Amino acid sequence: MRIGDLSTRTGVSVRLLRYYEEQGLLRPVRRPSGYREYRDEDVRTVRNIRTLLAAGLNTQTIAAVLPCMVDDDGTLAPACLGMLPGLHRERDRIDRAVADLLAARSALDVIIGAAPPPDAAEPDACRAA
Question: Above 90 in pLDDT, residue 75?
Fold first, then answer.
């Protein structure tokens, strides 16, 4: 199938499919004419890429783990236990990012909570803005 057909079947833009190819995530067959030809299994590959992206993995990590994943009717699983340490590292990285975001939200809550009541007179600094 051509790239436009793959785009239609997956809901992923042609531009993004080309990016996935540049990153080594998709490997279409090149026809003598230069056109890319995608296989039916590329539809599943694109869906798996989207699942791994939604799980917080970057394309470099996906390129490393995707060939070692099995897809059992839409559920991705590592094909070998050797992948688990890397997946746990990614999960730990995401946990740290979540903790940082929660700390930032708490700091913002403190700032918002320190605001004067709505009926208070605005200081001159606010009028200058």
Answer: no
